[in-house]
Design goal:
With 75 residues, this protein is α+β, with helices and mostly antiparallel strands. It contains 1 helix and 6 strands, in the order ββββββα.
């Protein structure tokens, strides 16, 4: 994946197929999801695949939300 901004909305899906959010941009080794006010970021290492259907993670949606919450709590 390359580029900092994505013009077309790209859904971010857990490995279970549940949508977590929409990809906003890459920030170093993390991906930021929309809406930005929620501050949700996930590690790039959580990405399993990218297609026109969306960005699929290698972890289920609930685990991704828990990871994102943990990152927000530490800031």
């Amino acid at each position: 994946m390359s580029g900092d901004e994505f013009r077309d909305p790209l859904p971010v899906l857990g490995s279970d197929g549940a949508q977590i959010g929409m990809l906003e941009r890459l920030e170093g080794d993390r991906i930021r999801l929309r809406p930005a006010r929620h501050g949700i970021t996930l590690p790039v290492s959580a990405i399993a695949s990218v297609s026109t259907a969306g960005l699929r993670l290698n972890i289920p949606a609930e685990r991704a939300r828990a990871l994102a919450a943990g990152v927000r709590d530490r800031r």
